[in-house]
Fold:
Amino acid sequence: MSKIVILAEKPSQAKAYSDAFTIKKKDKTFIELNPCSIFPNGATITWGIGHLVELKQPKEYKSEWGTWRLSSLPILPERYEFKVATGKYEQFNAVKRLFKEADIIINGCDVDREGSNIFYSIYHMTGVRGKTIKRLWINSLEVDEVRKGFSNLHNNEKDLLLYAEAKTRQISDWLVGMNGSRLYTLLLQQKGFADSLSIGRVQSPTTYLIYQRHLEIENFVAKPFYEIEGNFAAANGKYRGKAKIKSEKQEEVQQLLDKHNITGKDTGVIKSVLKKEMRIKSPKLHALSTLQATANRRWKYSPKKVLDTVQKLYDKKILSYPRTDTQYITENEFAYLSANLESYQNLLENRFAAASKRPSKRYVDGSKVQEHYAIIPTKQVPTSAKIQGLLIEEKNIYFEVLNTTLAMFHHDYVYEETKVITSVNGLDFESVGKTEINKGWKELFNYGSKDKENPNAKKDENAAQALPILEKGEQVESIVKMKEGMTTPPKPYTEGQLISMMKTCGKSVENEEEMEILKEVEGLGTEATRSGIIETIKKHQYIEVKRNIVHITEKGKILCQSIEGNLLSSPSMTAKWETYLKKIGNGDGTPQAFLGSIAKFLNKLIEEVPGQLNAAPIQQSIDGVKNVSKKPIAICPRCKKGKISVSRSYYRCSEQENGCKQTFPGKLLGKTITEKQVKDLCTKGKTSLIKGFKPKAKEKKKFSAMLILKEDFTIGFEFANHSFVKK
Structure:
């Protein structure tokens, strides 16, 4: 009588699994299932809380590694050790007990590399050995998909390879972070930089690409260019066109006008009127990155918000697995989408007659589906009540995915394109007009007039115009003139564009071989990690996002100037590393070889970086930041002698070295404390009302209050009718 234990990655996933069966017993650390056809003797579901197990900190290997010293580098443990994460012992011990009792253990964590890493990190930490391990591999948490998955469990051969890859990636990131961060921070502090730097295998080159865009904009010099534009009056109306010339030389354009004896007001003749029917197929299905880019463009959602929202909709069983990098589905998914088409349409305002229910290779191609298929609605069609119960961002994301999926059954968008060539004294002008014939799939998307396929495309003035009825051979009156324009700088990235930039950064790599590798591994990070990387860069204050526009900070500039010229600034490093990591996942490489190359890389950094940091621009940037950070905010309310100014992540008195203990936090209960609020505390003893304090990090309930400076010069809260003293 075999005892089966299933490990889910988190409690919500465990609940979704248990919904597919009948429950015998619920405990705060596990759920026991009744016997059924799939589990004749029943089964027990337990769970992690994300990572129950993590890598040890340097000081837990050697006490001398606990202090940041250049002499301690490189930090290279002989073997890498793990520990139970703080605050997670109770759940870990429950899992350990259940694993010991089990005959068969099923890895039910998320179906990706990180899910493999979480499972085996916990399994090895329990000390349990010799158990039969199976892998659940599903893309949906719907009841029938869960039951089908448990009926068709995979062996753990591929799972072990993914674990080896993920663990190697985890250790390499730890090594680069621990050594690189200490190396750069300590060397820059010798030069007067008061803050610390965080170095990362992926976050550092990503920050550098943002910095490069900043430099392109900052160093851009606008140049004039010249064109020839014609405004024409025909019998049935007016239209405009352009000659095929665009030059930075005004005299070159003038010579062309002179060559054709164009005075400005001449008679033209229509040489040709060509009409062509154009068809645009519906957009491809969503991968996570395309959904993140679309949602950021439409609703200004951050990539993390999109991932979190899709995860919630996945947990609610109405969208498929979120962390996918493909835009294709297999014929199995197409079959259920086709069968449920009418039910899905009941959720839409714009119902339509399906143009075809035959699968198209544009969307349905099993050869392009590996671990996961595209993000699509599940078989479970939500009721109106369930839709009404969704948060606004959940509704927006769900309907974006639903409409994009249903669009593949819709008619093409059809329009007639008219190209007109007008000759003025032998100089040809082209005009393009567009007449909509059938809105087709576009009627599903009520987001304005931007083309969903190319929403960022610049509007062509000619293409946008409505042409009057024109005849070949017709004479027209013309007003022709030279038109001056100015080149424009590249635009800064939006937060959504960062995802696309990370995915396509191979364009910035000059080496052709490395560019091909980056294309293959899809740039920096993975579909599952990119939004987290962006959040990390924000957390370290290398970038800030204002009104969805990404700006590099002064701290970010210092980081990028410091890593300039070595592999930490280049996607080339990721190209080489990701290729080998992929080999480990395929069974063609070894963790030992990869970590050996990381050790060589770190030794090279330690040798070369001190010289690289002598560059003059780095010192100038540090001096600039020092001057800004020392700008006083107010007289210290405690000692009345010193001045309060910014110091790293908090505010302090300039007389701190002489004994004054006055400080103010940079962040309090989830809210950033601004310089204005610190000034008010120092000068008035009270701030204006601040909204959005959170008593606990994960707590949704927020409160508003004014900060007050108490008699002992610590901070308290004041509400409308009473005070609350912060302990």
Observations:
- Residues 170-219+493-617 form a domain with the Topoisomerase I; domain 2 fold (CATH 1.10.460.10).
